[in-house]
Amino acid sequence: MVGTRFPGVLAASLLAALVATAVAVRAAAAFPLLAENTPNDRGQSVSLSWTSPTPPPARWILLRRQSGGAFAPIDTLEGTVHSFTDESEDKKGVQDGVAYQYQLLADPPNPALNSDVSSAATPGPEWVDTAKMNVLVVLLLFFAVLFYYINQAHRGVRWKFRTIPGLIAIEEAIGRATEMGKGVLYIPGVQDIDDIQTIASMIILANVARMTAKYETRLSVPTNAPAVYTVADEVVKSSYQDVGRADAYQTDMVRYVTTEQFAYVAAVNGMMLRERPAANLLLGAFFAESLLLAETGHSIGAIQIAGTANVHQMPFLVVACDYTLIGEEYFAASALLSNEALLLGSLKAADVVKLIMIVLILCGCLLMSFGHPLVAEWFATQ
Amino acid sequence: MKRQIPTLITLVAGLFCLIGFFVPHPAIRTLYDDIQQWVIVIVGATYVLGVANLLRINLGQMSARARDWPFKVVLLVGLIGTTAIGFSEGTHYLDPTSRFTWIYNTFYSSMSSTMFSLLAFFIASAAFRAFRIRSFEALLLAIAAFILMIGRVPIGNAIHPAIPAAADWLMEVPQNAAKRGILIGAALGVVATGIRLILGMERTYGGRGAGGTS
User: Fold this and answer.
1) How confident is the model at residue A297 (pLDDT cuts 50, 70, 90)?
2) pLDDT tens digit string along A268-280?
3) Closest-CA residue in chain B for A238?
4) A interface mutation test: which of B19, B23, B122 has the most A CBs within 10 A?
5) d(CA A220, nearest CA chain B) in Å
6) Structurally, what CATH architecture does the domain formed by A2-113 represent?
7) Is B193 touching A (CB cutoff 8 A)?
8) Fewest beta carbons within 10 Å, which of A115, A168, A214, A291?
9) What CATH number matches the domain at A158-339, 3.30.200, 1.25.40, 3.40.50, 3.40.1050?
């Protein structure tokens, strides 16, 4: 009896062992696939992440299904990737409010390397981008400080600001040009009107144009973008009207030259050498052309005042120009030139926020030095 | 009204774009993205005004036989000729064998490269002035520049391995600290300027307003 029953018991034991081993292998090899609604987005997106087995397969075949539906392949990924964002703006992709599940299949097929089926993820849009909360907090702080100082300005409080030699020199340069009977050349940088430096340049141009209108000095503004030309032309015209010198405005004061960087340099350098202005004002966003313009201006003996927030061009302008407005000085120029209480209040607010930032940076450095990256991490932007 | 309406448009558009920066929801973001596209349309339209200005000024100077007027002829022939040839080639104007591409590579690209290469000479003349030691600060600048220039070429390492290390330290510590200080200040200046514009405090660019100077 024993002899006849033995093969059957053995076979059953072997089968059980194989199933157990297979289950064990599957349990050991299968890895979790995390699917979640992509945070801080406009919807229609699911983020997947996983830790690949070692070694990973050559490729992954990504399957997707609506909860309860059948899986269908949607993409093939390299075996080395560890994350994927399933997003689409058309109807073939994931839709907001619908729950989806995912699974990764190894390619070439190897069931031991397949992932688990992910939990259901439902894509949807968010109303607030929490990754930008730090920017929002700083901005709100800025607004709060700004409104406080505007209120102070309304109450008649006045502040003293350090003297910026470059700003004082602008009026002196225009006066010098007037005395010499020469013109003023205003170069508003080489960026389009959507650049904040160009916008700041237009604000300064308004003040410069008022001065040239009062002194009856010739003003030339070559622009490198048609949009800048239209804005600059309006700014100069309005400024001449403001000081009651609309008759002195000439339609060729502001001109469009070209959008091409070095063609613009060639044209403006030609203007410098032909017209020999007594004052060159280079205020705006400059790149490789900065030194070409400033050195040509230096060679004709013009007094040169530059201003830019492009850090990489500042050394060139500092070397070649008589005065340079650096970074924040450039953006403060319009407020200081106007000397208007509200604008000076905004300048004071910027100074206070800068002081707060300095304190926070110092706190962040100290905390970081003692192994607490809290402040440093909070300031990180995405 | 001539000044209030642009200020109002600036306020509404500025605040909307500010909100759109923080709100990813399509209810806001779709229009936010569309507004960014409007810029392209508006800039495209301004090219008509720009070219009209270019033609008016240069034709005027040509007819008045102003100084160096033959250059204006070259400019206008180049502008009109290139535009006409570009249009005549239709959608193939950027093909490698097109006449438009030939004009671009033969004339524009060469002249642009020439202008750029002049920078080397301008840098030399500017550096000569910058490194004249007339003050203590200028002395520090000259020493730093010397270490940096020597440290960036193989001979620096051959003289002493500390020279390239000193050059790296100069770039990574004092230079970076100064640069970041300027950048933080400029960034706050950008925010302040943006807020002034959005809130309509800065109206000097549109004629005399709150920010007018006398």
Assistant:
1) very high
2) 999 999 999 999 9
3) B207
4) B122
5) 13
6) Sandwich (2.60)
7) yes
8) A168
9) 3.40.50
